[in-house]
């Protein structure tokens, strides 16, 4: 009787390869599972410190190299062109506000200022004469009114005396008539003068105001003209120490040229360069 022959299991090369691949896959999967996540790091738990998170300004410190500078600096510039005539201060001097530092010469400017002053003075004189003329006209008008009022009063007195004599039949009506006409004339003249005074009052007031404004403008122009001459004298704008001042007699200066600076004394500041990254 035949019987079944059991085949013996054998490890073939294919099975060896499959087992190796499976083992490598399991090892890789285990290594991936046990490895730290991306962006993480393993540290000792004893080295950790804990704290409460709170919102606050971010502070960062940047090392800087600074230099000490005056807290306030006032620059001096030439207000007009000219040539240095005299230097009245030296670099490093302590100066007071308004102290003369340098004098400039400019013959053309001096001539222009003198001519302008003479022209303004002449116009001021004309304006003053105009005011005096207006004042004289008003005074003459007032005097005419006073004279006419006085003449009217005397004419009335003369007429009253003649009328008394006429009532006593000591004078004829023809002798009284001239006095009556004189009273009427003086009354009409006084009324005419008063009407003219009322109509001219506004005109004279406007003329006086216009003359006053003109005089004010001329005086202001005169001050500005003289200020142009005063620009030839350079003064300290404020009190402090004069620095960057190196002018020499005979040196030419143009309008707007820097002449120096005045640094405040007793107050200082730190000046440093900082990278824009920290701004």
Strand content: 15-25%
The helix/strand order is: HEEEEEHHEEEEE
User: Sheet bearing the most strands, described?
Assistant: 4 strands, antiparallel
What is the general shape?
Answer: elongated
Largest beta sheet: strand ordering = 2-9-7-4
Helix content: 40-55%
What is the alpha-carbon Rg in Å? 55 Å
How many alpha or pi helices?
A: 3
**What's the number of domains?**
2
Unreliable stretches covering 5 or more consecutive residues: none
In round numbers, the mean pLDDT is 82
Structural class: alpha+beta
The CA-CA distance between the termini, in Å, is 103 Å
Number of strands: 10
Quick recap of the structure?
Helix content is 51%, strand content 15%. It has 279 residues and is of the alpha+beta class. The mean pLDDT is 82.
Walk me through what this model shows.
- The protein is of the alpha+beta class.
- The protein has 2 domains: 63-106 and 232-279, OB fold (Dihydrolipoamide Acetyltransferase, E2P); 107-230.
- It is built from 3 helices and 10 strands, in the order αβββββααβββββ.
- The strands form 3 sheets. The protein has a 4-stranded antiparallel β-sheet, with no helix packed on it.
- Helix 2 (107-167) runs antiparallel to helix 3 (173-230).
């Amino acid at each position: 009787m035949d019987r079944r022959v059991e085949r013996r299991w054998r490890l073939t090369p294919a099975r060896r390869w499959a087992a190796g691949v499976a083992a490598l896959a399991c090892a890789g999967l285990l290594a991936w599972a046990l490895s730290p996540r991306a962006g993480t790091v393993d540290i000792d738990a004893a080295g950790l410190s804990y704290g409460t998170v709170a919102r606050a300004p971010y502070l960062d410190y940047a090392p800087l190299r600074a230099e000490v500078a005056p807290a306030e600096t006032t620059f001096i510039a030439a207000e007009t062109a000219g040539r240095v005539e005299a230097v009245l201060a030296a670099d490093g001097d302590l100066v007071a506000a308004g102290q003369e530092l340098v004098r400039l010469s400019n013959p053309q400017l001096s001539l222009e200022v003198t001519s302008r002053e003479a022209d303004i003075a002449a116009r001021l004189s004309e304006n003053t004469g105009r005011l005096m003329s207006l004042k004289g006209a008003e005074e003459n008008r007032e005097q005419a009114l006073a004279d006419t009022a006085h003449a009217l009063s005397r004419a009335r007195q003369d007429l009253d005396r003649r009328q008394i004599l006429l009532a006593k039949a000591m004078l004829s009506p023809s002798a009284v008539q001239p006095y009556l006409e004189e009273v009427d004339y003086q009354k009409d003249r006084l009324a005419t003068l008063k009407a003219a005074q009322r109509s001219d009052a506004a005109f004279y007031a406007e003329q006086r105001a216009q003359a006053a404004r003109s005089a004010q403008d001329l005086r202001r122009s005169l001050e500005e003209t003289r200020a142009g001459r005063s620009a030839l004298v350079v003064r300290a704008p404020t009190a402090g120490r004069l620095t960057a001042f190196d002018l020499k007699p005979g040196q030419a200066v143009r309008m707007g040229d820097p002449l120096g600076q005045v640094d405040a004394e007793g107050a200082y500041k730190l000046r440093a360069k900082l990278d824009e990254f920290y701004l």
